[in-house]
Amino acid sequence: MRPVHWLSFTLLMLIAAACGAPQPTPPPEATLNPIATPGPTTPPTATATPLPTPTPTPTAVPVMVGDDLRARRSMPPVPQRGAPCGVVDFFDFPLGAPDGDGAGARWLFGRYSDRYQGIHAGEDWVYDGGSSLGKPVYAIGHGQVLYAQPLGWGIDQGVIIVRHIYPDGSFINSFYGHLDPPSVTLKPGDCVTRGEHIADIGQPRGRPHLHFEIRRHLPDTPGPGYWSVDPRLAGWEIPTDTIWDNRIQTSPGIKWTRAFTSSNGAPIGVLGNDLFAAFDNDELFAAEPGTGRVQWTHAVTGGFRHAALDTSRQQIYVSTLSGTLQAIDAAGQPAWQIELPAAELLPLPGSGVVARVNGRLAGLAVDAQPMWETDRVGEIADWLSDGDRLIISTKGQDAATYALDRSGALLRLAPQGGQIALARGRLFIYNPTGLYRVDEAARAAELLLPLDSGYLPDGDLTAAYDGTLLITHRGAGDRRLIALNVDGTLRWDRSVAALGRAVPRLIAIGRRVYAVTDDGDVLLIDQATGDLWRIFDGGSGTTLPGTVWARELPRGYLAFDFRGGRLVVLDPLAAGPQPVEAGQPLTPN
């Protein structure tokens, strides 16, 4: 155990006093004691190793993406009892069908208008670029026309209302207003299908646009368009959210979803009782992985800062912005609380927690007893457990990668920091300058793959079951997905710029590796060719602040949050045919 020196004595005194532990006696001299094992001293300079394959260029060949999700989900509108025009398979968007491409909602649901002295009960949709006058409007799903009048809104022109029946017998009504009167040719009782062109945008008193609502009432009257209080209290729904929620709920392989709306929503991990724990909206919750049924919740007061799961998986540690460290057991019951400045938390090998406070790492036992403290290290970039030690990588000016054991012995392994992964017993580091392989004996890192400058944390690294290394990298001119063989040679390099604004997150589950994008896609990666196969499309109009993440749950389930307002749990194996496993060639979708 590292001796306690005078500069850090105050911190341990605070911890000990808060948890009722005996206070340590100050050392006789205020001298800085070195870490027992070799510490963060300057290691031998890393040297670049020439690659036997070409170094990736700033741009790469676009990735090939296969996708049969729409075809497998589509069902014809077969008339049946209670649903003369068939039931909903899934919804599309009213402009730019099926996915709203080239269009969008400009005046959103819930916005207050001084002109109409009310709250908007729908969304105003327009096409991108130029006037929307005369542009097509599409039915969002299979349904039956309830109301259709060329001048249903008088000077604000035509209105169509369509009822959509779900397989369980429930329903919603979709409303299309400001339609060009001559284009309103449907009649009540007519059937429409998802994606059918039902009318065109007309010329209301303002700019041409589609006023689009989803509601459960007012089946045969236009209604006001605005409401005096929150329209959801009177039977309206948020249109875009309703469409995306329906798409997610009806996706193949979906186990469950949960509203997940806070900017600091975060996964905690799988507890010893196999419940999945996470944080959202000022509370911890634990849910069954297969059903999403919540078994317990625990309110976190003082503002959530960070959390870690004990290696025993029996205790969650939570740091708060107000300066407390709390422990909650696997049943959701508080175990203890002490005063401690807001900290980053990591699991201590064996049991207990590592807290980074004011740049120093402090070890606390499972009962909150202080154990040791290290010298300063940089801000944590990534970490992983490796047997009886914790590998910690830091970022910033003093970036480095360390090994920490239970006694507090801190050994600097390499002078580089970033995302880290273990493959075939070797440690690898990815950062904007390249991919490095760590030589622990020399405490240095060998440069395997130079990269053009990128932007952390907008990049990721993972290792497949066979040792293959996969990287997502945002370079100066492109966003890329790169694979290296177990010997460090380049296998392939693909541009993924078409997949979203940021590079995907990577996660290995069993023999497969998946990419999760901030646009709500989950894609299976063909590790041999670099082709992708889309198994989930959850793109959402909602974009929340925060970081996209993905975690493996029991039974090989995948939990992820693409910042679209939903926590999603997916069974990837049930998501449908995935030909990349057999090496089948793909064509662009």
Describe the protein.
- By secondary structure, the chain is mainly β.
- The chain has a domain at 90-248: Glucose Permease (Domain IIA), CATH 2.70.70.
- The protein contains 3 helices and 47 strands.
- The strands form 11 sheets. Strands 3, 6, 8, 9, 10, 11, 13 and 15 form an 8-stranded antiparallel β-sheet that branches. A 5-stranded mixed β-sheet has the order 1-40-39-38-37, with no helix packed on it.
- β27 and β28 form a beta hairpin.
- Mean pLDDT is 88; it is low at 1-10 and 12-54.
Q: SSE layout and pairings?
A:
Elements: H1 6-19, E1 61-62, E2 65-66, H2 69-73, E3 103-107, E4 112-113, E5 118-120, E6 123-127, E7 136-138, E8 143-149, E9 158-165, E10 171-179, E11 191-192, E12 197-200, E13 210-215, E14 226-227, E15 236-237, H3 239-249, E16 254-259, E17 266-270, E18 276-280, E19 283-287, E20 294-299, E21 304-309, E22 315-320, E23 324-329, E24 334-339, E25 344-347, E26 353-357, E27 360-364, E28 370-376, E29 379-386, E30 389-395, E31 401-405, E32 410-414, E33 419-423, E34 426-431, E35 434-439, E36 444-450, E37 459-463, E38 469-474, E39 479-484, E40 490-495, E41 505-509, E42 512-516, E43 521-525, E44 532-537, E45 549-552, E46 558-561, E47 566-570
Parallel strand pairs: 1-40, 2-44
Antiparallel strand pairs: 3-6, 4-5, 5-14, 6-13, 7-12, 8-9, 8-11, 9-10, 10-13, 13-15, 16-47, 17-18, 18-19, 19-20, 21-22, 22-23, 23-24, 25-26, 26-27, 27-28, 29-30, 30-31, 31-32, 33-34, 34-35, 35-36, 37-38, 38-39, 39-40, 41-42, 42-43, 43-44, 45-46, 46-47
